[in-house]
Design brief:
The complex is a heterodimer of chains A (about 350) and B (about 240). Chain A is mostly helical. Chain A folds into 2 domains: about 1-300, no CATH class; about 310-350. In chain A, about 75% of the residues lie in helices and about 0% in strands. Chain A has 15 helices and 2 strands. Chain A has helices at about 1-15, 25-50, 60-75, 80-100, 105-125, 155-175, 180-190, 190-195, 200-225, 230-235, 235-250, 255-275, 285-300, 300-330, 335-350, and strands at about 135, 230. Chain A has a two-stranded antiparallel ribbon. By secondary structure, chain B is α/β, with parallel strands linked by helices. Chain B has 2 domains: about 1-80 and about 155-235, P-loop containing nucleotide triphosphate hydrolases (Rossmann fold, 3-Layer(aba) Sandwich), CATH 3.40.50.300; about 90-155. Chain B is built from 9 helices and 10 strands. Chain B has helices at about 40-50, 70-80, 95-105, 110-125, 140-150, 170-185, 195-200, 220-225, 225-235; strands spanning about 5-15, 15-25, 30-35, 55-60, 65, 80, 155-160, 190, 205-210, 215-220. In chain B, the strands form 2 sheets. In chain B, strands 6-7-8-3-9-10 form a 6-stranded mixed β-sheet, sandwiched between helices. Chain B has a 4-stranded antiparallel β-sheet with strand order 2-1-4-5, covered by helices on one side. In chain B, helix 3 packs across helix 4 (about 110-125), helix 3 (about 95-105) runs parallel beside helix 5 (about 140-150) and helix 4 packs across helix 5. Chain B starts with a strand and ends with a helix. The model of chain B has no long low-confidence stretch (mean pLDDT about 90). The chains are: A mainly alpha (about 350), B alpha/beta (about 240).
């Protein structure tokens, strides 16, 4: 934990200078990392902390993207307002989502979320007003910070970073408030959670609504950055899986896990895209699947879990060495030289 | 007024009758043992009172209010605390966090909940394990942790499901001490128990169930001399 506190300002400083050190192509990749990380953090609120694995979060992301874009195209609404409206709309949609899916538990819940997200995708594919399968172009006539629309990549970097920090901030607050405790209780032992007066249906819904709200904000940002959305780019099941995977790979139920997961996953994804180009279509899907299998089999706690257990093992080894050294010192009081040797080895391991 | 009144409660699962017209009551600060041979319907009765099952018939009054058929979280807020046969601690949390989560029912503020939790941990002699992950504690420690967690919602009655099962004699003694301390605080206890040596000396009243129906009720002395009880436990000869 001490390391994390130390790491935060360093990471923030790195984030502030980074865009000036990389070229446009790499900057775009960093933006993708930040955006995927933000989605992972949003997903983690429900899937990681409250333990309700959703594979339908693209529905909220898509609603966010479509809400801000449609409001701007049809009514000339400012995208900042559109973004917030999209978030609220997604939170509203999450009520129906929760009402239908929370009747089921575990794997069945996950399967139901896929079905509901699929319904949303079909709905948008058929909805003529929203461009149906053709999709929507975000108008570029108004540019600048007020209209969240830029010809260069750099401002999108700040937007993605800002949104990630806000999402992390809210998650940090949740983690420390009673909500975080309630979510973890529901994840660990739902029956016991009820026995101490926690209305689990209500708190699962709160986790889902928060998660949906932030996923939708990410969707709006995507629309503003890419300037084009269609059902397959913002509502696909692959996207839902990616959100889950970013969090699971990094470490479920940890604050920074999704950020780590996103850095790893997005890098691999972009690397294969460069390596295989057009012929590499679907390679990322193969990689997702392989990673899911590897994580499930070898490291269910993700990268953060691996780091933590590595630290714990090291601490335990140092502890054991210290105890052995003390024991040896106590039992071999007269043999001065032996004791020194032991002390030396302990220092080597401990440091 | 009685604290808890169970009136003619029946619970049927399809064609199976787990409880048939069971009635008993618990006074403020009383320790009541609910005993009976395997399959007598003790745990079913217990789950009806805690809200995990809705009784098929009858009523359950807590401080005069009917809680029969209410969900567990409503029963908990009404004043029913419970523990489980397997401790069901939140294994991803530390001991202190387990109890804090429960204390948050009364106190949303995390720091105040932590202070309350430490008091309850001390109450069950676990304060030295406050920062230990609940999953790494022994069965006996986890059971006491579950008791502390249930107490942190400050119930007027605590339902304990086989808190002494599988414990060694010194651990049983610890569990008995905890029950006595709970009674001292004026909290009633309804204890489902197999370990009769544990429950008999501390119970104010024993209710005996057999095949879903109540066959005896009285002081431990009366009950242990009751021929119905003896035949239920040892079989008819």
């Amino acid at each position: 934990m001490k390391n994390t506190v130390l790491l935060a300002p360093v990471a923030l400083l790195a984030a502030l200078v980074l865009p000036f050190l990389v070229d446009a192509t790499h900057l775009n990749m960093v933006i993708l990392v930040l955006m995927a990380a933000q989605l992972g953090v949003a997903w983690n609120m429900l899937g990681g902390y409250a333990g309700q694995v959703s594979l339908g979060h693209a529905a909220f992301y898509g609603v966010g993207a479509y809400a801000s874009t449609l409001l701007m195209i049809k009514f000339g609404v400012n995208p900042w307002i559109g973004m917030l409206s999209g978030g609220c709309l997604a939170a509203l949609l999450s009520l129906a989502f929760g009402w239908s899916c929370f009747r089921l538990k575990g794997h069945y819940f996950a399967m139901a979320t896929i079905a509901v997200a699929e319904l949303v995708q079909i709905f948008f594919t058929e909805w003529e007003y929203a461009g149906a399968a053709v999709g929507l172009y975000v108008p570029m006539d108004k540019q600048g910070w007020l209209w969240m629309n830029f010809a260069t990549k750099l401002p999108y970097y700040w937007l993605a970073l800002g949104l990630l920090l806000v999402t992390l901030g809210v998650n940090w607050w949740i983690e420390r408030s009673f909500l975080g405790y309630y979510f973890r209780a529901i994840k660990d032992e739902p029956d016991a959670a009820r026995s101490i007066g926690i209305d689990i249906a209500r708190y699962k819904q709160i986790a889902l609504s928060l998660s949906a709200f932030f996923a939708a904000l990410g969707g709006s940002l995507y629309a503003q950055k890419e300037l084009y959305i269609d059902p397959s780019s913002v509502l696909s099941t692959a996207l839902s899986i990616k959100m889950a995977l970013v969090a699971i790979l990094g470490g479920v139920g940890t604050l920074f896990g999704p950020v780590v997961g996103s850095a790893v996953l997005t890098s691999i994804e972009e690397f294969t895209r460069i390596l295989f180009g057009g012929t590499g279509r679907g390679t990322d899907v193969i990689i997702y699947a392989t990673m899911i299998i590897l994580i499930a089999v070898y490291y269910p706690t993700g990268i953060m879990g691996w780091v933590r257990s590595f630290r714990e093992r090291r601490a335990a080894r140092a502890d054991a060495a210290r105890q052995m050294a003390e024991h040896a010192a106590a039992s071999r009081q007269p043999k001065q030289s032996m004791q020194q040797q032991q002390g030396g080895s302990h220092e080597a391991v401990g440091g | 007024m009685k604290l808890l009144e169970v009136k003619q409660v029946s619970k049927r699962f399809g064609g199976l009758t787990a409880n048939q017209d069971v009635s008993f009551d618990v006074d403020q600060g009383q320790v009541v043992g609910l005993i009976g041979p395997n399959g007598a319907g003790k745990t079913t009765m217990f789950n009806c009172v805690a809200g995990y099952f809705a009784p098929s018939a009858g009523s359950i009054l807590l401080k005069g209010r009917d809680i029969a058929g209410q969900p567990p979280e409503v029963c908990a807020r009404a004043g029913v605390g419970r523990t489980f046969q397997v401790a069901r601690t939140f294994t991803g949390m530390t001991a202190c966090e387990n109890v804090m989560t429960a204390a948050m029912l009364l106190q949303r503020d995390v720091a105040k909940a932590r202070a309350a939790a430490m008091t309850w941990l001390a109450f069950v002699n676990l304060e030295r394990f406050a920062d230990k992950p609940a999953g790494s504690m022994t069965i006996s420690e986890q059971r006491r942790l579950a008791v502390a967690r249930a107490l942190a919602i400050e119930p007027s009655i605590l339902l304990m499901d086989e808190v002494m099962a599988g414990l060694n004699p010194s651990e049983v003694r610890e569990a008995v001490e905890v029950v006595l301390k709970i009674r001292e605080r004026g909290i009633a206890c309804l204890i489902v128990e197999h370990v009769l040596e544990g429950i008999m000396p501390i119970a104010d009243k024993i209710v005996v169930l057999d095949r879903g129906a109540k066959i005896a009720e009285g002081t431990p002395q009366q009950v242990s001399n009751d021929p119905h009880v003896i035949s239920a436990y040892l079989g008819d000869e």
